[in-house]
Amino acid sequence: MNTAPPTALAARLRHALSGGRRHRPLPDRPAPGTPVAETRGLHVRLGGREVLAGIGLDVRAGEVLALVGPNGAGKSTLLAALAADLPAAAGVVLIGGRPAAGRSAADLALRRAVLPQAASLSFPFPVAEVVRMGRAPWAGTPLADEDEAAVAAAMAATEVGELAGRPYSALSGGERARVALARVLAQRTALLLLDEPTAALDLRHQELVLRICRERAAAGDAVAVVLHDLGLAAAYADRAAVLAGGRLAAVGPPAEVFRDGLLSRVYRQPVEVLPHPRTGAPLVVPVRESAARPGSPPHAPPDSPPGSPPDAPPDAPPALDL
Amino acid sequence: MAVSERPATRPATAAPAAAPAAAPVAAPAEPRPRTALWLTLGLLLALAALCLLSAGLGAYEIPVADVLGSARHRLGLGGAALDRTAESVLWNVRLPRVVLALLVGASLGCAGALMQGVFGNPLAEPGVIGISAGAAVGAVAAIALGLSFLGTWTVTACAFAAGLGTVTLVYVLSRAGGRTEVVTLILTGIAVNAFAGALIGLCLFFADNAQLTQITFWQLGSLAQATWPKVLAVLPCAATGLLLAPLYARRLDLLALGERPARHLGVDVERLRLVLVLVVALLTAAAVAVAGIISFVGLLVPHLLRMAHGPGHRFLIPGSALAGALVLVAGDLAARTVAPPAELPLGVLTALFGSPFFFLLLRRTRRRQGGWA
Question: Where are the domains of chain A?
């Protein structure tokens, strides 16, 4: 295509302008169980308010870590801090064993991929192009040879292969969410940070996304995922971190952490935790007094029907960000 | 409240797990590289033809064969020199004008594509959002105050400084929460254009008659005063901008995802923005310093190319430079030859064709968004 002329001068110029990314050392694959990212005594302030207060948490290679908690608990902020998007007011975020704040954007892009809550696109790129953008960090490295394979695999895993030629702006909200996930998967980093990847998805695709998380963890990657659905978290996460008011209320395997008392207190809603009759995994159910009597109106307020995450964005495709 | 069972553990929903892996995914190829090639070739051919035509046509007609012959003669490749008048018209009047049209058009087209990429908004354009007017303030002030501290480069330098200030101002004013909304951008453009207009009016008020004539042409936009020194005056600005711009194409693609996602993909967004704002100011200053305010080229050209080949910036940026040059050479040819012996101001001509297009674009954007609010 029409890029700069392939003269030595242009190559040198481009090299200098791209921050010399051609000779960056590539990150090693982390050993299973070692922390890929961790926070130590992390405090984050946003707009003068302390959103995270003293978080110490690690995301380990080979595991899925679910971040759960009520609205405004600081889940997305913690994820953004792990992604090195937000400066720490106190404490430190380590990625690959070194402070994230000291790493360049290009270096970080080889180590972590981030799925934002809302995925907008200014121009109507075709879906395949959007997914291919996930390979940008590897341009000029030996791993650029994997580009096509990584893109094809990510599109197959998220079932967006058939959309490849469609413009992103013509997709539904759920399709966009899966394309955005495919882009993040194609980046093939050892750390995946997903902010509510299931919010816009139907039941089947929610399961699909969490299965992908498990596969990536089984392949040795570290996955941190913000979830509202405690059932999904219980079924798929190795560990769950329960946040409340900017602090860690509990961290551990879902079967240990998801207790009636803790969840009822954190969510300020009485819940019951029952073992699944067949698998024994915890099921989290709010206590409903007039529960499920046919014909009786549900107790929940009319604008949040039971079963849907309370602050999930509407499924309507967001307006193209023009 | 979060309520859920675990459907995954049920055989009924676990079954489709195996199915998606079988879905065939053709390894997606590079998008339409052929169209890019053909478009580039077509644009280059059309540009060459129009340049020849433009060099020959006018009040003093020179046949295309003679133009080629004279060019070959000058290059020492045979051919023959024309008579003194024809030679002078061709080399001292026509060619500087054609070259200037090429430079200005390429600068405007490229600046439009870059600016739309940086703002993430297809309505951003140096003329519409007031960058051209801002740069014109610098140029007009340089003339009205009789500045000459940098020789022939004074006007260009002043246009650049003022243009840079304006881009920065518009950028800061029109962005909120990491994105630029259409309404904010257009309204900022109105405010900036009004302010720049007032400043130009002030300069006019204090200018003497000779300066007044010189200044009036900025407000209309024209290439009528093209000379080789003028070409030299803008060449450094235009060439630097045009050579730097394609280097940022890939990063502009990523910026379409938003600032944070672009940073997650390794783009140093702050630096990218800084460099591109500089490049846009360079290109706009180059165009405005010699040709005045010529609007809508930077809006129309990238938009048409996006429709032909998609929004990828690796083609869009060099393509917009090419197509911008084409539009301006054609526009200038029309301005000179439509109503002889009079000459239409080029800026008036581009606005005449560009404004309705802008209107259409606005309507389309509005429909797609379902309103501005």
Answer: 27-111+191-201+219-259, 119-188
Per-residue pLDDT of B83-125, as tens digits, reads 888 888 888 888 999 999 999 999 999 999 998 998 888 888 8
Q: What is d(CA A322, CA B185) in angstroms, rounded to the nearest whole number?
A: 11
pTM (two decimals)? 0.81
Q: Which residue has the higher pLDDT, A213 or B2?
A: A213
Please judge whether A187 and B27 are an interchain contact, meaning their C-beta atoms are less than 8 angstroms apart.
no
A/B interface, count of CB pairs below 8 Å: 203
Domains in chain B: ranges and CATH: 104-366 (1.10.3470.10)
A264-296 pLDDT, tens per residue? 999 999 999 988 888 888 888 888 876 555 555
Quote the DSSP letter at residue A38: E
- Give the ipTM: 0.81
Tell me if A122 and B123 make a contact (CB, 8 A cut-off): no
Q: Alpha helices of chain A — where are they, by DSSP H?
A: 8-17, 75-82, 105-109, 127-132, 147-157, 173-186, 203-218, 230-236, 254-257, 260-267
Interface of A with B in 180-239 (CB under 8 A): 183, 187, 203-204, 207-208, 210-211, 228-232, 234-236
Q: Which fold has domain A27-111+191-201+219-259?
A: Rossmann fold (3.40.50)
- A148 touches B: beta carbon within 8 Å: yes
